């Protein structure tokens, strides 16, 4: 809207300038100067000059003044020579009478002509100064009008480009277009979504912080366990060195190893893993009555620093309830009986 208002103002200014050209004094002066002609009696040969540029006019006037001064000097010289010759060749008996009054009169006329010439030169100098001042203002006004016209043209081109861009946008995005209410609603949804994402990011950062703290604590615990392991390995090496010294323990060790292997194969025990100081996980591979095998995991949790069983958890047997077996054997702290009952019920399960 602002560009259209500026364009309309520029066009109105240009129309006003065009309509008032005839009434401007500077335009009338230019027309009068263009139509002015020098009298043929003053100058014998008058050439047409370019009156559009004041600098060219000033140069032409200066050249004409120089020419006229030279012409005047030549005229005075020729006139003096002519009078001198006439005085020489004229008869002595009838010489031209030149009295003192004639010389004074000529001198007076000469002074008057000089004063007139001086006044004419001052007027000419004033006119030249006014012409220079007016010409500079005309040049400034011309440049200003030219800039305003160029700016108006530029604004008109920008308005046309904006209209074309708006037309392309309307063709690219036909109805129904996004309204202000729809945009506000979408903005509110995006703000809510960003808030939810921010909360989620904060939760994730807190979780990462907690995980880092836990990892740091576990790293310290791992370093402590490494130290304990090194000490245990040293003790084991010392024990092995003692066993090597006493060969009587070798048959006993072989018998115990074989017994453990037979027991594990009979019970189907595949793996034993200590999860923590009071948690033990047993992995069994049990064969049911149909001859198919199933892997189950039994987790035993003890009371810390004791051999009392606190709870047990069976995994890998979906659909079978072992809660009654576990509760019955927890009261008596019968771990073997509980494991046997769980394995027996798993073998009977189809």
Task: Give a written overview of the molecule.
It is a single chain. The chain has 350 residues and is an alpha+beta fold. Helix 1 (2-19) packs antiparallel against helix 4. The longest helix has 73 residues, at 100-172. It has helices at 2-19, 25-35, 54-89, 100-172, 180-245, 249-267, 323-332, 335-348; strands at 269-276, 279-287, 293-302, 309-315. Strand 1 and strand 2 form a beta hairpin. The protein has a 4-stranded antiparallel beta sheet. The two termini are 85 Å apart. Residues 67-142 form the Kinetochore protein Sos7 coiled-coil domain. This is Kinetochore protein Sos7 coiled-coil domain-containing protein. It holds the Pfam family Sos7.
């Amino acid at each position: 809207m602002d560009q259209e208002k500026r364009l309309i103002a520029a066009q109105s200014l240009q129309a006003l300038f065009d309509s008032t050209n005839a009434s401007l004094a500077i335009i009338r002066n230019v027309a009068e100067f263009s139509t002015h002609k020098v009298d043929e009696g003053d100058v014998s040969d008058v050439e047409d000059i370019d009156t559009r540029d004041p600098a060219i006019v000033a140069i032409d006037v200066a050249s004409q003044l120089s020419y006229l001064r030279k012409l005047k000097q030549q005229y005075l010289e020729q006139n003096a020579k002519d009078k001198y010759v006439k005085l020489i060749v004229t008869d002595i008996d009838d010489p031209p009478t030149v009295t003192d009054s004639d010389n004074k009169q000529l001198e007076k006329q000469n002074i008057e002509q000089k004063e007139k010439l001086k006044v004419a030169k001052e007027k000419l100098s004033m006119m030249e100064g006014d012409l220079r001042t007016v010409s500079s203002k005309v040049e400034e006004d011309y440049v200003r009008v030219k800039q305003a016209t160029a700016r108006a043209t530029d604004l008109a081109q920008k308005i046309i480009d904006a209209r074309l861009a708006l037309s392309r946008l309307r063709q690219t995005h036909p109805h129904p277009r996004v309204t202000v209410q729809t945009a506000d609603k979408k903005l509110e949804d995006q703000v809510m979504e960003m808030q939810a994402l921010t909360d989620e990011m904060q939760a994730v950062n807190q979780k990462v912080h907690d995980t880092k703290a836990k990892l740091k604590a576990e790293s310290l615990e791992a370093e402590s366990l490494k130290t304990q392991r090194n000490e245990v390995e040293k003790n084991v090496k010392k024990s092995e060195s003692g066993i090597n010294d006493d060969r009587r323990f070798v048959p006993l060790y072989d018998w115990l190893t074989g017994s453990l292997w037979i027991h594990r194969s009979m019970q189907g025990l595949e793996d034993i893993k200590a999860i923590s100081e009071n948690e033990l996980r047993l992995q069994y591979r049990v064969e049911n009555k149909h001859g198919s095998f199933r892997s189950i995991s039994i987790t035993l949790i003890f009371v810390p620093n004791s051999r009392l069983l606190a709870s047990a958890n069976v995994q890998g047997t979906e659909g079978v309830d072992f809660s009654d077996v576990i509760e019955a054997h927890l009261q008596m702290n019968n771990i073997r009986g509980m494991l046997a009952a769980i394995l027996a019920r798993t073998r009977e399960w189809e």
